[in-house]
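Long-time lurker. I teach an intro course on protein structure, and each term I like to show students one example going from raw sequence to a predicted 3D structure in token notation. This year I'd like something fresh instead of my usual example. Would anyone be willing to generate the tokens for the chain below so I can use it in lecture? Attribution to the forum is fine with me.
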Amino acid sequence: MLTKRIIPCLDIKNGRTVKGVNFINLRDAGDPVELAKLYAETGADELVFLDISATEERRRTLTDLVKRVAKEVDIPFTVGGGVSSIEEAGVLLRSGADKIAVNSAAIKRPALINELSATYGNQCVVAAIDAKCIDEQWKVHLMGGKIPTDLELFAWAEEMESRGAGEILFTSMDHDGTKNGFANEALRKLSERLEIPIIASGGAGEISHFKDVFVEGKADAALAASVFHFKEINLAELKQYLKQNGIAVRLH
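-- Reply from a regular --
Happy to contribute to a lecture. Here you go:
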């Protein structure tokens, strides 16, 4: 049985970890390298770094950060934010990233996913999708959730899979930072329609939400930020809880 993964997410702005609610009202959450090291030591299965600041220095800043993190952790980590070419992805992978997450750039030019998959293998390609439920339809958004599109979540996820994405990272904008639980119904639908793993993001607030996202949402991995950054949930305790509830996890 494949183990379920727990993935802390670090949103990076100007070299610091930040966290908001519904994609706004950001507050500082600490040094990303220190947090990465702590999570790797206490039981995280993977890490995700998302550069959410659109500065012209983004690539240089992020590359430096990736190198520093790679020296400190021995678990896979995914990097995303502004990656729009196989060259940019290559720089990050050579700096120590294991996977590249692509969101807005794939919406603007879907063939990028084909190119990344063909060049680096689908195991390196994560299609990140931010979506919000509008009039009972999940609509995909770009630019960090600022711009709605006409794309529908499930059809878009299927296209990403068909183009060579190895995983889908789905963030429910409605649930992000609310701590009311994950979008389990949408996640279950994604899981039923796709063959590739689904990473759930948005809504973790208490330990039981992780059980629910695996049992009800059928997710392969659960990503969370503030509950880990602000020490509301302990990773080791979370893993023990999941194991006690019959969910296969890797214990540290």
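Some talking points for your students: The CA atoms of residues 186 and 217 lie 8 Å apart. The domain at 5-244 is CATH 3.20.20.70 (TIM Barrel).
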